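Tokens for chain A. Residues wanted.
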């Protein structure tokens, strides 16, 4: 069975979860490039290299950046578009660590003393695994539906993305906004890989 997640409540920012930091609070060393992970809507996460500048970071997220620090992990930054929803960008991933949703592309990088830096190999493996699937986000006035799918071992990336779009459309039609939906979370268990 393909893994999927259904949510009935909208994420809300909570002080006891991840830390959210304004862009101005971060320092950047423009003399270096950093190794990051880029996560785009409807695509698999990928490794990339980025100039460690504000302009480069804003180019990746498509506008003003907002920095998220996952709970209990100050050495990682998830950088999203602060105004992504208002700009009409596509819903990308739910970030439960910070009780929010990323709209449009975002990236993951290392963070040391509020300064952006490269991800370590361990962090890269961890967050490629964390964002290994795709999510399709359907928003209604009273609830939020999220369909997620993980790539099967025998699928090419092209096959995976094509089948994910079809599966999400079928799932969306099945879970119409007029139908009651209970909170459910079902994930396919995979062998190996970093622990979440």
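Reply:
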């Amino acid at each position: 069975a393909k893994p999927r997640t259904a949510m009935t409540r909208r994420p809300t920012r909570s002080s006891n979860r991840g830390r959210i930091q304004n862009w101005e609070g971060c320092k950047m060393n423009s003399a270096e490039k950093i190794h990051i992970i880029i996560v785009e809507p409807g695509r698999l996460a990928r490794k990339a290299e980025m100039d460690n500048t504000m302009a480069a970071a804003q180019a990746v997220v498509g506008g003003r950046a907002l920095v998220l620090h996952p709970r209990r992990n100050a050495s990682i930054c998830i950088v999203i578009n602060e105004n992504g929803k208002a700009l009409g960008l596509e819903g990308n991933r739910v970030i439960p660590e910070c009780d929010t949703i990323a709209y449009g592309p975002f990236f993951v990088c290392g963070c040391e003393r509020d300064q952006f830096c490269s991800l370590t190999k361990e962090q890269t493996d961890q967050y490629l695994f964390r964002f290994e699937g795709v999510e399709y986000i359907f928003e209604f006035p009273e609830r939020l539906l999220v369909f997620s799918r993980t790539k099967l071992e025998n699928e090419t990336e092209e096959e995976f993305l094509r089948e994910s779009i079809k599966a999400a459309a079928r799932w969306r039609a099945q879970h119409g906004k007029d139908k009651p939906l209970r909170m459910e979370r079902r994930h396919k268990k995979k062998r190996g890989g970093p622990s979440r």
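Residues 36 and 48 are 5 Å apart (CA to CA). Confidence is low (pLDDT under 50) at residues 1-17, 178-191.
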